[in-house]
Amino acid sequence: MSSETTSSGPGMAVLNFCRPALQPIVAVLIATIVGGLLVLALGENPIEVYWLLISGSVIGVPNLLVTLQMMTPLIFTGLAVAISFRAGLWNIGAEGQMLVGALFAGVVGYAFPMPWFLHLPLAILAGFVGGGLWSAIPALLRVYLGVNELVVCLMLNPIALLLTGFFATHVFKAPGPTNKLPDIAPSAALHTFSVYSQVNAGIFIALACCIIFAIINVRTVRGFEWKIMGLSPRFAYYGGINVPRRAIWVMILSGGVAGLAGAEQVLGQYGAFYDNFSPGYGFDGIAVAMLANFNPIGVIVAAFLFGALNGGSGVLQMMTGLSKYLVQVLQFITVLVLAAQFSWDWLILRLFPEPPPKSPTPDAVEPVNATPTEA
Amino acid sequence: MDLEILNSAVRISTPLVFAAMGGLLTYQAGMLNIALDGFMIVAAFTAVATAYFTGSLELALLAAILASMLLAALMAMFNIKFRAHIFIAGTAVTFLAYGLTALLLKGVLGQDGVFTSDRIPTFPVIHLPGIENIPVIGEIFSGHTILVYVAYIFVPIVAWTLYQTKWGLQLRVVGEAPEAAAAAGINVDWVKFQAMLLSGLFCGFAGAYLSLAYVSLFANKMTNERGLIALAAIFFARGNPYLTALVAILFGTATALSVRLPQVTGLAPQLLQLIPYVVTVLALVLVGWRTTRARSRHSAWRFDIG
User: Fold this and answer.
1) CB neighbours (10 Å) of residue A215?
2) CATH top class, domain A10-374
3) Separation in Å, CA of B269 to nearest CA in chain A
């Protein structure tokens, strides 16, 4: 949070304006430098490699479309993680919630044929419900039994993978050698725009979700209550917010959005539920949310960045002796740097020398003014 | 047939026991280390790469342990010095390790996905002189590599260290009441750092065992969530070393069965692989239910959950 109340001057105002972007940019820069050294050690030219990554992802319409395809699930999972992290709940189970959502959407997509204007919304809703139900487990355990939601989420990820795998191989298995559900009916398919990539109407749902949550966060009482919970659940509780109840719903919403990622993958990208289809979008969502600093609009930017890296990594793998996993390395170095509670104020002061602000803890002070009237 | 399953259960459980001992020390020090998989995969890769280039098992084991401890030091630095949330740091380190090993696999060894070679030496099998000839026990416990025995010997050593030494006491105090520990003059951060380093040490053994003794290859993500199962065992046993090892062995046996049993019964292998995770969640639910009932009804929301 900014310390705008403690210092004045035009320079500081500019700084406070840039502040939300500074932290992610520095983190990405550090990751780029470390990754570049790594590339150098492996005997490739880092500048060439980064140029390949950029040109392979955003230059040219086909490449850009692949990037958009790659970023769609990341928007959903990134938003899901951002919603819960912002409210102080550590939902790292987005991967499992996405898988369950995908299974639900896949089953509704093939098993209940009906007109498209009913079928498609129902299949998408099924994805949301699937993800929401899966995240309700850690939420309810957290609130009613005081079980650490992190550990439960952690365990529920492999459980979801194995269970959906079980359904895909033993219960609803489509005939044939592949472990998948039968193809979804055309009436449930999300429209695909281009032959170059699998980017589909799901991306608009993703963007809409981000905008909706941006509005909720900034304009509604709920959004404000979530923020206070994230800053200090104890304070929120004594401020009259029904923290347990809010916590359950935040988790369910977060899981539901993660489930939408699964629905998009099944209804748009693959056209059926495949066993083990995810390369870890749920975990990439943590990276996206961290880079976005839990801001829904920031999620779009962060998802674009990581989607572009993923899109460019295919080109990288073809053109050089490097593996596409370079992108994963860059991504999680960024997360690690962002997770560190570096003294960002110190960094700012080093970059732009100013008289040091003399507020010890701006974080704790800020929300006090606003609470009683709204709750 | 049955004995063969038990014999393979001992082998399958070995990396779980190593990793569980590593995770146990951090658990007792009040840190929930979810990067066990990351430590192991780095160790597994380093072991294979070193063994391939030098042909020496000792060097490979040493390098694996060093690499794993290096990653542990990185994790400790970010968690303890820079105050990164341990779960975020752990997740980042794990996926960083997955990515890095895959990148180096392609960059150093020139392979995508899997690497194996005739030049990689493997740990020789040891036949225990006296025990080998005892009918049942011999078949289960003899004929393993040295690392298997090392793993099981580590269990009492860890237990003894935790409960009989001054350092173990300090570690447990740091885990249970960091403020009290600091007040008593213990360097809390330093003890935590040591615990994390030792966690890396044990995971180094686990990784080297996986890639040089259990099989003789490296594959991307070859730890296959073993760190998570080890963590599940720790949670289930609530940090007791012997119990943790026992639960790890039971989970390992379930895994061994999930390989063999489907051929016999036609049961889906996924359902057996589920056991460790489901059992752990159920155990957490049970513990939570007990403590909630014991607690006052009015405290509707606990703010600080370890």
Assistant:
1) 12
2) mainly alpha
3) 8
